[in-house]
User: What shape does this take?
Amino acid sequence: MADKAILYDATKCTACRGCQVACKQWNDLPGELTTNRGTYENPPDLSANTWLKMRFTEIGDTPENLRWLFARRACMHCTDAACVEVCPTKALYHHELGFVAYKRELCTGCGYCVEACPFDVPRSGGGGAGTVHGVRTMSKCILCEDRITNGEEPACVKTCPTGALTYGDRSDLLADGQARVASLKSTYPNAYLYGEKELNGLHVLYVLDDTPEVYGLPANPQIPVAATVWQDVLQPVGWGLAGLVALGLGLNYVIARRKIKINSEEE
Amino acid sequence: METVERKPKSTPILHYIFGAPPVPGEDVVERYSRPVRILHWVNAVAWIVLFITGLLFFVPQFSGAAVGGWSGLFHRIAAVVMVGWAALYFVTSPRSALSAVREAFKWGRDDIGWLQAAPSYYMLGGEDTMPPQDHMNTGQKLWWLTVLGAGALMILTGALMWFFKGIIPSGAFMWSAFFHDVGFIALLTFGLVHVYLSAFHPKMRGIFWSMWGGKVSAKYAESHHKKWYDKVTKE
Assistant: This one.
């Protein structure tokens, strides 16, 4: 099936945060008690109960050059996803529609995905806190799997009043995003379509009127080297080594038992 | 043809599995003191718990058992028991603990000889080329070094992941997980060899019981640990 994606156009976003509310409402996530920190940005960070939030960035120190930038913070649904790579129980996986889904019942709460994600998105603390063992399962945006597999668009997209969020086939959105960036280039020479190539393609695309760094996005996100060598190199080596040793010991037993019996009979 | 009715000699199942312990009246030498034996078995049980609860993380088919983090809890309890008991032993018997650690680093010419003679010795039972060994033979020293080295690595990386999650950079956390796995592989592979050689190898039949009752037959001690045997019998 064709990969689905969300296109976020930062130049159309007014940071009304309707998407934040719609996300909580549809996914039945409780609100969080926060305090006024002198910004409209709220809550301050993603959490197990906040899968989507808008980041506010102020740039410039005079009223003339002041820029107020908004960026969507949620799972990017990477093609090369560090969380999928590192998840020991394969609770995290790529859905056939391309996004990163997970089976909560397989999550052990090890928290490796939380550490590995180059976008700092997954959060521990979902699925009922285990107070005794102190382990909580992972939680993050699931691209409203239950909606999109039933032909609906994600809740955040549905609610977006300015058209900053659109949903559809990734290939279509890619074309839309490229066209939009091309038209922005004349006014904003740094305009950029983020997510086209990053990590082999994200399933959340960003139309930006400036460089990704300005919006707080990593310019060159990567799967951590430790995660790759651990899962792709060390683990197969470990299994192989253990198998070889077990095989060698079995062989030794068969040979040594015969030889030593013969030797002792000769004596 | 005459048939003789003979009662089958009954062997306790454990003797069948591990070989028979020294028979009553046989000359024996004490090999492991009681605190050492208790330390060994506490360690062994904790090791198995750590092994199983750790493995649950890596076999998707078993992960159902790890869900909710209960395996993680038992993993931590076993870790505390293992490290705590070793620390307790170190505090209560510092002298024997230190000399045991020193033993791992005492290497000489006979260790080179052991490494050369080992394949024939353990495969074919050829004893001619095997140089006399001390209280620990070279293989045991290698295992002991692995336990000390990989053990330290496990404690360090485990503590980092347990207590410093979210405090240390995520790169440090990921590498801790990586090296925790390195230590696991080292202890698993060498541990298999250890269990096999001390309980199942045809040349080591019965030696399993030395970690139970503490004694080995004088015959065994002389043929396997000549240097040590000479020392203890001289006293």
User: Anything to note?
Assistant: The longest strand of chain B covers residues 28-30. Chain B has eleven helices and two strands. The two ends of chain B are 56 Å apart (CA to CA).
